[in-house]
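Why this split exists: single-chain examples teach little about how molecules sit against one another. For that reason, every record in the complexes split bundles all components of an assembly together and asks for one structure covering all of them. Below is a record exactly as it appears in the raw files.
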Amino acid sequence: MIHVFHRWIVLTAVVSAAALASGCLSHESQNASGSRFVSGGDEHDRMWENSLGMPFVQLPGMSARLCIWETRTRDFKAFIDATGYDASAGMFSYEKNYWVDIGRSWRDPGFNQTWQHPVVGVSWEDAMAFCRWLTETERRAGRILPSQEYRLPTEKEWETAAMSDPENKALTGNYHPVRHFDEFDLTSPVGSFPPNQLGIYDMIGNVWEYCLDAARPGSTLKVIRGGAWQNYNGKFVGPDVRGRCKPDMRISLYGFRVALAPVDNAEELRARATSL
Ligand SMILES: [Ca+2]
């Protein structure tokens, strides 16, 4: 049984004052390093890829599959191109030591992103809209069954993925640029760091990841997990770190990861999430 000690980080408005004060963005460009699959043996055999080239693995003991990558800019662009969905307004970006809304969006979050980087500056609601579109698209194409759907992972699913590898609890991932723990000053292309034992990447850092669940009983706030590229220690980044956010919040620290699961399972979990 996985024991998780949740460290709460309140991120209801933007981010904590400490996190804001600690941030320092540069504007260096980054090249896509290419993504690495787990290859060979059982790990490779149980990988499944959807129409956008998003690979999924089965979560042990659960009915859901989870994408091994955070959702990329290329994935979100496919959604925008197909639907005309407007995710352009109200995004907070880090400008000269302040988090402000100066009209940036996921396309231009204030630093260079390739199509292989995780999308940032999209809200929980945007992520849910992406999942609904992908579900409808792949059902029509026969890629998934009518009894399956894409959605955000529940916390239980996210924790199963993040905590599956005790050795991977160490702070190996993309986080704070000033401390130079890693080679990336900002976001990194998905899959740039070693995967955990399930073959899943970037559960630690890079971007905070939305979960399906409400932050607490009766709350409209949503759960975010794992920390992001700007965070720098165990208080703000790691597989057991938990934060909360408004569902319409857009900021260049937040992104998301997608699960594919049976509809019945999703409805049950969604009902549980909204009734908490
Ligand atoms: Ca992450």
